[in-house]
Design brief:
Structural class: mainly alpha
Radius of gyration: 22 Å
Helix content: over 70%
Length: about 150
């Protein structure tokens, strides 16, 4: 029998794999002039990523209790089941801020390689882009910590 939980897991897995595949192919296409058009058009893959992304958004929900269930639990009328679930906030509470700097440097290098023909202006573009990657990533991670 096919349950909704199985469907949600399948959609989540397929979306994650398609997204990673699309981003890797796009990166190889940009860096190494890898022509994916002969094998697979990136536009068709992007359409699949968008479709599965929409399915993922509409099928995945956080496990939350409704207000009535919360009141029943507080009054002792319902047994509470405890779940150990690692959420994004649990992952972000660990010190992974070094990854932000690594991605900022990688972004700097990719942009420098692609704009090399611009001369000194490519250095300006690359440095500003690397700084923006780092600052915006830290800002997004900081917002998640503030919501706790």
């Amino acid at each position: 029998m096919f349950f909704k939980e199985d469907f949600v897991k399948i959609v989540s897995y397929v979306f994650n794999m398609l997204l990673v595949l699309y981003l890797l192919l796009l990166l190889f296409n940009q860096l190494f002039n890898f022509d994916t058009g002969m094998v697979l058009s990136l536009n068709y893959l992007l359409i699949l990523v968008i479709v599965f992304g929409i399915l993922f958004v509409f099928t995945s929900k956080e496990d939350t209790l409704e207000k009535n269930e919360t009141l029943k639990i507080r009054k002792g009328k319902k047994e509470v089941k405890e779940y150990k679930m690692e959420s994004y906030s649990d992952i972000l509470s660990k010190d992974y801020s070094w990854i932000v700097y690594v991605f900022g440097i990688l972004g700097f290098l990719v942009i420098k390689l692609k704009t090399y023909s611009l001369g000194w202006f490519s250095w300006v573009i690359s440095i500003v882009a690397g700084i923006l990657i780092i600052l915006l990533s830290l800002l997004v991670l900081g917002e998640d910590e503030d919501e706790k």
